[in-house]
Automatic annotation (TrEMBL):
This is Uncharacterized protein. It comes from Pelagimonas phthalicica. The chain crosses the membrane at residues 47-70. Keywords: Membrane, Transmembrane, Transmembrane helix.
């Protein structure tokens, strides 16, 4: 779909809507990447995002601390201990952060379904 056609379609939808429908359309506007990410901190499951990010941050800080100890180690066994710990913590932190991506994608899909419902409703009125 061309960008000009999409803008024209959006303008037609806005012109056809009134009151509550217009508010719903504004609530379903497409958000940018950072807006989608920050939106995860609110709502019913916002506390889960806060917990995940706090644990992920703690794991990252611990991984950096272990990495510093790894690079400072002069013997093999302590270097392996700190290097392995750093790697596991860094991968765990990454996995926790990536666990939020499906929710972001689900929010995008739900937002688009609401827009489609409004388009269908405006065609039937």
């Amino acid at each position: 779909m061309s960008d000009a056609f999409e803008k024209d379609l959006d303008a037609q939808i806005k012109a056809a809507l009134t009151g509550q429908d217009r508010e719903i359309l504004e609530a379903t506007q497409e958000l940018g990447w950072f807006e989608l990410g920050f939106k995860q901190f609110g709502g019913k499951l916002g506390w889960v995002t806060w917990v995940v990010m706090l644990v992920q941050t703690a794991m990252f800080i611990a991984a950096v601390w272990c990495a510093i100890r790894f690079f400072g180690a002069t013997e093999t066994m302590p270097a392996l201990k700190w290097g392995f710990s750093s790697t596991v913590l860094m991968l765990g932190a990454l996995q926790m952060k990536l666990s939020l991506m499906p929710q972001i994608q689900a929010d995008r899909v739900i937002r688009e379904v609401k827009r489609l419902q409004l388009m269908v409703a405006s065609k039937h009125d």
